[in-house]
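Hi F.,

I've been meaning to write this up properly since the lab meeting, where we talked about keeping a consistent format for the predictions we share between groups. The idea is simple: the sequence comes first, exactly as it goes in, then the structure tokens exactly as they come out, then a line or two of notes. No screenshots and no reformatting. I'm using this chain as the first example so we have something concrete to point to.
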Amino acid sequence: MRHILNINDRWRFRKDCAAAPAALPADWETVTLPHTWNATDGQDGGNDYFRGSCCYARQFNRADLPGSTKHYLEIRGANSSADVYLNGQHLAHHDGGYSTWRVELTAALREENCLAIIVDNAPNDHVYPQTADFTFYGGLYRDVSLIAVDEAHFALDDHGTPGIHVTPEVKGADAAVTVRTAPTGMQPGDMIRIRLLNAEGQSVAEASSTACETTLVIRDVHLWDGVKDPYLYTAEATLLRGGEAIDAVSARFGCRSFRIDPEKGFFLNGRAYPLRGVSRHQDRLGIGNALLPEHHREDIDLICEMGANTIRLAHYQHDQYFYDLCDERGMVVWAEIPYISRHMATGRQNTLQQMHELITQCYNHPSIVVWGLSNEITMDGAKDPDLIENHRLLNDLCHKMDKTRLTTMACITMCSMDEAYVRIPDVVSYNHYFGWYGGDTADNGPWFDRFHKKYPDTPIGCSEYGCEALNWHNSTPRQGDYSEEYQAHYHEELIRQFFSRPYLWATHVWNMFDFGADARAEGGENGQNHKGLITFDRKYKKDAFYAYKAWLSADPFVHICGKRYIDRMEDVTKVTVYSNQPEVELLVNGKSLGRKTAEDHFFRFDVPNRGESTLVAVAGDYRDESTLRKVAEMNPDYVLREQGAVLNWFDITEEKGFCSLNSTLGDVMGTLRGKAWLARFLLGMMKKQSGSPKKGGAKKGLDLAMLPDLIKMARGFTVLRITSMLPMVGISFTKEELLAMNGGLNKIRIK
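Output, unedited:
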């Protein structure tokens, strides 16, 4: 029988090492998997985290292995390329940092063995991802195991296959379930027994044959029905010889049907089921991507608490354990590969391999309904014939491997809805940040209306939308201030626009959690993207989290916004309360300000601000409390200070009626003189970019061909904010250069 031995312990590790030892080194660091070497430097900013080769080595004795005929090594995640050596002999190479892969060790085994794995996350020109707004953590960051099987066994060497593929098809009150296996080493007389078990472990169908594919029927099937009833069955496949089991594999599955209607959105089991949820990156503060099961469980608990019913698992294959949790909790999932940002002509084979692995390994999960082909891949334009052909090949591969699911992709804002590449998948979504990266929050819904009107037969969704928020606060929040108050305002507006448009097949907030992006230098805490509804450490739920909970969750609650915004200057301050209850009362120091109703679940109160006040919100049996304090001057702890910034906004000289670095790009462009200044600014950027070094094989830097679209988007940004973001594309300015810019802007009158 099959034996699986976890070997996460007792590894030796050496950083910046490309040579595999033939014997276990005594002086290397001892580590336990999961492990990444970028848990700290991949989150602290500067885009300088170590990217290169590191070596893991472990010793084991053959006598300690089960007495089976064949032995395999299983690696569930090694980012991003890896080579396996046993006793100094090279056995395998794998490109792709997010999928499971296996190596047969049998022929190279000795009595005493030194296993070495060299993992490399250095830049190159053929393995995705290479350009993206997240950290590419290096390491053996998921489980590593040894698998022992007999000569006859269910296949282990097909793209990390689980060895069993289950395809349920709901037919009226019943379900026809086709189970496919790939046994190897079978002898005459061997049989394959298939059993289907319900959630209680009782057999509901069974058959034995020599065939690799068997179809059984579940009568009066219990459907997998989303978050309300995510019912799961189990399929067991057993390889029998003389009636004795010599190998066995199993997989949970769910019986459900779905469709996506371009006019009415997503349907689950024949009924309208609007998909409203979040995207998720897998990493954590101080941990990187080396997660333990309890981290995954906490993430799914928080997503469910918010009331979401869908997750976009971005931008790569996630841990199989998390897909299992999505199955168990009824999440509808978008699964995708890291074909992202910039197309590489030398990376086609890697995209096809990663997609093949994703589908092979994730096929049985009922939560998954769409395979994602790419994300924002047209940063260099959408007309490249090789890019278009790559997408067509991926789309065809998905349909060939899986006839039960649809394909999708996430398009960048600047990509025209008329591009041929947008027509390739079955359904499509766009990443739009109107109201954060330029434009206005009000622009979001109308853009989708225009798409829907022009292409009424193409299902359209929103794959990313959001804005950043840290512990900054003010009573007049504005685009680009990184305050918790503006993030709450932004999501209130987007909830109203998106949730009132039933044709949107899915909407996914970017992002559920803050995440590591070491190239980022904005918002006052470098090395992170702060668009999460929850902080990177999962300790604090931002106010916007509760805005969604008010709309999506059936669990009663009430929440006072602005708990971190205690010190306020105004005599009467506005306080918002979120609740999914019909009525909210707000008390200030025990005195009621009255009861209010709100159809949008956002309850507004004007609160007298004198001395120190205790606020209590009451909604039915539920209460929440916060504190206010009247102050004469703005608390400096609430004022945005960029970490390591050359200049902060409050250090800048301003002339009344004239522009400055604190002016928006739109104000600067309002006059001919301002447009001339912008032309000089762009020329300076181009000079800096042409003189900046490129690292590795991936293209890095600002795509100048996209400048017109970028300028249009960035009209709402201050000039200072733009300069603070440019280091992410390799362009930076000195203090003297910024002061000179400000002096020039001080001569341009605001129109």
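Notes:
The first helix runs from residue 293 to 306.
The chain is about 20% helix and 30% strand.

If this format works for you, I'll send the rest the same way.

G.
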